[in-house]
Design brief:
Blueprint: H1 3-11, E1 15-19, H2 23-34, E2 40-45, H3 60-63, E3 82-85, E4 89-93, E5 98-101, E6 106-108, E7 111-114, E8 118-120, H4 126-129, E9 134-136, H5 140-151, E10 156-160, H6 164-175, E11 179-184, H7 191-194, H8 196-208, E12 212-215, E13 219-224, E14 230-235, E15 240-242, E16 245-248, E17 252-254, E18 266-267, E19 270-272, E20 278-280, E21 286-292, E22 297-301, E23 307-311, H9 314-328, E24 343-348, E25 351-357, E26 364-371, E27 376-383, E28 386-393, H10 399-407, E29 445-447
Parallel strand pairs: 1-2, 1-7, 2-3, 7-21, 9-16, 10-11, 10-16, 11-12, 19-22
Antiparallel strand pairs: 4-5, 5-6, 8-17, 13-14, 14-15, 18-19, 20-21, 22-23, 23-29, 24-25, 25-28, 26-27, 27-28
């Protein structure tokens, strides 16, 4: 037996702990068993439920087409795992190789996988956030509570933030016949993800469907009555709106607090790992026993200049989990890189919106198919002379082709004959992304390469 075979045989034994009973955590556990891992497997989750599917929570569940409790993820195989549910991880001791739980228990591990994902960014004022009628939407319980509130027929719903989730909630409200106001501090919905050129289409889409869309303003306060029920929202332009429900949709926060003091490169932007999902420590040294996958992970991608990308995509969570699990039980020569091309989709106001690649890297844009004024088009993004991304409104059939263009580093502007073109925008234009230093809602792909302005780590020279 070769040395690599000996190593691989050893790696298929021992104790693996997965912190995060999520889509990534479940798919990683299944892959570990598929790859022949026979050791003990423990999954830790802060919610009392086994892994469930999150995309339906802002769509089918709020419309009453599916119950929140029916969103459990299907199993591909029996993972023969110990489940520690309803108890969050509180800390990590790398020297002792154990995870500490909030109830005081410790879980020893030989290898650790971090799949803790994200949580909804809370409203900034705790007392206002506690008012009856103020919601966030991230968990199964969040969705069930919001469904019941919408079903009761509130007079007006306020959605704070017009990213993808906020826009989907606004769409659900209009489909249910509810009056809805959307407050967005940026110039347009989806602008942080797709740029203002494309976001103007999203603006028109919302207003055409009866949304009271207010851009360039923020909500400064939520006011309750004496019974503690939400009754009014105050905006930065001095206006006030009487509302019964407010849904706070201000982006996601990565669940990394429990890693404070662990010595890992983990913070508000996620857990940094290499292309093989191995986590870095704060000194940039890769670990060999700790891995990360899913929304909480950020890793370099060769197609995008080796920038560190944080991806909030369903498909990425699945694929990265499989790569991480494979590498956890493989010898070094058999490990694989995570090279998934980012993809995202959303359905709102009857329109299917999809993207592939990293639009936020784009410095130029051209409409290759369709026309912006028809809300049926493909916008192609370029970066330093190559195709970097594409986004479509009701034209998703083209995105497979543009994925191939991205993977082939095809030149931008496209040099092939364009078809179905009904626009006067023949020359590339600036996609008009907002200044990244100004507050806006996070895109579904966040570029998190090193910034010289970040000074979060203090290096201390070792003693002689």
């Amino acid at each position: 037996m070769s040395a690599d075979a000996d190593v691989q045989a050893l790696r298929r034994k021992g104790r693996i702990v997965i912190v995060g009973a999520s889509l990534s955590g479940l798919r990683a556990a299944e892959t570990l068993r598929d790859r022949g891992f026979t050791g003990s497997l423990t999954l830790v989750g802060d919610e009392p439920y086994e892994p469930y599917d999150r995309p339906p929570l802002s769509k089918q569940v709020l419309l009453g087409l599916e119950c929140a409790e029916d969103t459990a993820l299907p199993r591909r195989c029996d993972i023969d795992a110990e489940w520690r549910l309803g108890v969050a991880a509180a800390g990590l001791d790398r020297a002792a190789k154990h995870v500490r739980l909030v109830n005081g228990d410790t879980l020893p591990y030989d290898r650790l996988l971090i799949t803790t994902g994200t949580k909804a960014r809370p409203w900034f004022h705790p007392e206002e956030a506690a008012l009856d009628g103020v919601f966030v939407l991230r968990t199964r319980d969040d969705s069930a509570r919001l469904f019941r509130k919408l079903a009761a027929g509130p007079r007006r719903v306020l959605v704070i933030g017009a990213g993808f989730t906020g826009s989907e909630i606004a769409s659900v409200c209009r489909e249910r016949g509810l009056e809805v106001t959307v407050a967005e501090r940026a110039p347009a919905p989806l602008v942080g993800a797709l740029g203002e050129v494309v976001a103007t289409v999203a603006t028109r889409l919302q207003r055409d469907h009866g949304v009271d869309l207010r851009c360039g303003v923020s909500v400064t306060a939520l006011e309750g009555n004496q019974a503690g029920r939400l009754q009014r929202a105050h905006l930065s332009d001095g206006s006030a709106i009487d509302v019964d429900v407010a849904v706070v949709s201000l982006g996601a926060v990565r669940n990394t607090e429990w890693l404070a003091g662990s010595g890992l490169a983990a913070g508000p932007r996620g857990v940094a790992c290499d292309a093989g999902c191995r986590v870095f420590d704060v000194n940039g040294i890769v670990t060999d026993d700790i891995y990360a996958a899913g929304d909480v992970a950020r890793s370099p991608h060769p197609l995008f200049g080796y920038q560190f990308l944080s991806l909030e995509h369903w498909g990425n969570a699945v694929e990265q989990a499989r790569i991480a699990a494979h590498n956890m039980v493989s010898a070094s020569t058999d490990r694989r890189p995570h090279l998934w091309v980012p993809m995202f989709w959303s359905v709102q106001f009857g329109v299917n919106i999809k993207s592939v690649g990293v639009p936020t890297l784009g410095d130029q844009l051209v409409v290759a198919q369709g026309a912006l004024n028809e809300a049926r088009f493909v916008a192609v993004y370029g970066y330093r002379g190559r195709v970097i991304a594409a986004a479509s409104f009701d034209a998703g059939k083209w995105l497979g082709f543009y994925q191939q263009q991205i993977e082939a580093a095809a030149p931008f502007p496209p040099d092939y004959a364009l078809v179905d073109r009904r626009t006067d925008t023949l020359q590339p234009v600036d996609p008009a992304f907002p200044d990244p230093h100004l507050p806006t809602h996070e895109p579904t792909v966040t570029v998190t390469g090193h910034s010289p302005t970040e000074r979060r780590v203090q290096f201390i020279a070792p003693h002689a």
